[in-house]
Specification:
alpha/beta; Nucleotidyltransferase, domain 5; Rossmann fold; 2 domains; 5-stranded mixed β-sheet; 4-stranded parallel β-sheet; 36% helix; globular; BRCT_dom; RNaseH-like_sf; 3'-5' exonuclease activity; RNaseH_sf
Length: 314
């Protein structure tokens, strides 16, 4: 089906630190009639209460305090510009829970008593289409992975303008795969979280991992990165494995690509919102960790948001 009637705006934020209020860049891509007509981006000055730039965030997007001090726009002007660009168009983002949260938290610290628009989420839709078999061969659904999957060339991942463009192009591919004539039809209606309405694609919801206990007692989560040895299983939404390893090592931690007797922390990439997931033995690394724990080794098990919190404390 043609994308000729598909209109929306894709939004992407970058943040200065772990605070969702610390927006330091925003990109917007406008799509009308199934065609990209404009991509704009600018630096944002975070509110003074959340203006510290963390080394991890800077290593990901390359934005520095000096850059936003020289060229950044305050939140009031940023919000007004975004609303003018968006108008009445639907809003989409990749991992929209993050981007909508950034908008809402930036509003809050700026004293703006207003919620961000509802978002449609390309991450959510791509995962659902994988579960139904519409998309085959994808184990991860990060924006850069989807861009490569759809043959889209991305030169600067984590640059807000280009990430908004990639999100827009991925959204167009997903809408086409669904056979929809609009964003609303593809997602079934917006929600505050960006999740697809349950009645749109008839797939049983997967039980969240953290609804069940670990099969063996795990050690408490570490209080920091330094001195710990981390093993990762599964993918992360916020960064690539290489970026993850580099961030851990920069914070004084160590990497074990397989679960060994040196592993002290197993990071289970079960989704951007899956905090402290249980150890269930769902793959070889988890099975090895269970075996070592049963032999007396202390291994903590954490999720992606827990790892990001630790990295942002350093």
């Amino acid at each position: 089906m043609s994308n000729a009637s598909v209109d929306f705006v894709a939004v992407d934020f970058e943040t200065a630190n772990a605070s969702r209020a610390s927006a330091c860049a925003v990109g917007l891509t406008v799509v009308r009639g199934g065609q990209v007509v404009e991509t704009v981006s600018w630096l944002v000055k975070p509110h003074e209460s959340v203006a510290d730039f963390h080394p991890l965030n800077m290593s990901i997007h390359g934005i520095t305090p000096a850059m936003v001090e020289a060229d950044g726009v305050g939140w009031a002007e940023t919000r007004q510009k975004m609303l003018e660009i968006i108008g009445n168009l639907p809003v989409i983002a990749h991992n929209s829970g993050f981007d909508r949260s950034v908008w809402n938290h930036a509003n809050k610290v700026a004293g703006v008593d207003e919620l961000a628009p509802d978002f449609y989420c390309t991450l959510s839709l791509s995962r659902r289409l994988s579960k139904t078999g519409v998309i085959a061969g994808l184990d991860q659904h990060r924006l850069d992975v989807l861009a490569e999957f759809f043959g889209l060339e991305q030169l600067h991942h984590h640059e807000a303008g280009e990430d908004s463009l990639m999100a827009a192009l991925v959204a167009l591919r997903l809408v086409e795969l669904v056979g929809a004539s609009s964003v609303e039809d593809a997602w079934g209606g917006p929600t505050s979280s960006g999740m697809i309405r349950a009645d749109r694609v008839p797939v049983p919801r997967k039980v969240r991992r953290n609804n069940v206990p670990s099969v063996v007692p795990v050690a408490p989560a570490p209080e920091g990165i330094a001195g710990e040895t981390f093993t990762l299983t599964g993918g992360l939404d916020a960064m690539t494995r290489e970026e993850c390893w580099a961030a851990i090592e920069a914070a004084g931690g160590h990497i074990a690509k397989s679960v060994t007797k040196k592993t002290t922390v197993l990071v289970i990439g079960a989704g951007a919102e899956e905090s402290m997931p249980p150890l269930l033995g769902e793959n070889r690394k988890e099975l090895k960790a269970i075996s070592l724990i049963e032999d007396g080794q202390r291994i903590a098990v954490i999720g992606e948001p827990d790892l990001l919190a630790l990295l942002n404390e350093n």
